[in-house]
Description:
The chain is α+β, with helices and mostly antiparallel strands and 318 residues long. It has one domain (45-312). The chain has 3 helices and 11 strands. It has helices spanning 13-62, 94-103, 111-120, and strands at residues 156-157, 160-161, 170-173, 176-179, 182-185, 199-203, 205-207, 242-246, 251-254, 307-308, 310-312. Strands 9-8-6-3-10 form a 5-stranded antiparallel β-sheet, with helices on one face. β8 and β9 (251-254) form a beta hairpin. The longest helix is centred in the first third of the chain and has 50 residues, at 13-62. It is elongated. The relative contact order is 0.15.
Amino acid sequence: xxxxxxxxxxxxxxxxxxxxxxxxxxxxxxxxxxxxxxxxxxxxxxxxxxxxxxxxxxxxxxxxxxxxxxxxxxxxxxxxxxxxxxxxxxxxxxxxxxxxxxxxxxxxxxxxxxxxxxxxxxxxxxxxxxxxxxxxxxxxxxxxxxxxxxxxxxxxxxxxxxxxxxxxxxxxxxxxxxxxxxxxxxxxxxxxxxxxxxxxxxxxxxxxxxxxxxxxxxxxxxxxxxxxxxxxxxxxxxxxxxxxxxxxxxxxxxxxxxxxxxxxxxxxxxxxxxxxxxxxxxxxxxxxxxxxxxxxxxxxxxxxxxxxxxxxxxxxxx
Length: 318
């Protein structure tokens, strides 16, 4: 009996195209879901970072007469917005740097140095200040260089000072206020005074451009315009929202910046009308510029919370 040789039938071109199309369709369906899951995981990590910062602030306060970490108030009404010169005053020990911050002082009026005190105090690591959804600050700052010399601020990446917004992803409520032309630490910057509705830490506050008014990017438009073109969130999390930590240690994910006391926009420099979630600036605050402290009439928890530092969302410039 003659055997007929068997033939392995391969895929036809049409069958291959069908299979490829199905695979492409599955990828198109699954990729957005994977990206969303990754972002949700990043938000959880970011929330833990914000909560950790507040908890460290409380621990720091317990050893410092209930005051949250802060360097000396600016000598004038102008604060330092960015990392400045983080290598200034390096020393072979963290306590020596802390002493120099207050004694010299090498970081007077620098917002980021306030948070760096917790790193020098051994309560936090620079990695805890990086939001995994931050497209700009992707590398934590170094604590010291190869000769064990400690830095006095954020902004040092691989031994070199960074000027592109790297090293730190978060903002804190401005700890100072101005009265009679003199800057002082505010009474709200205290563990006993921080209320449950006072924002203390958030994802990095946005700025339109380095050196320009933050109100160019964040307006005082009413809350009803939340999703309009004039309401902007932090540059972290692709602008979808931000994690905000409050005085009682709770952290909330919010999709707009109107989460301050009485609905205040935490990403503005100007006063808003109580309860409106927006409004016209007062005459004394209308011309406040980036780098200038807000003028608060009394040493009490401010209604118009100001989150600092601010960073250009597109370029990372301070």
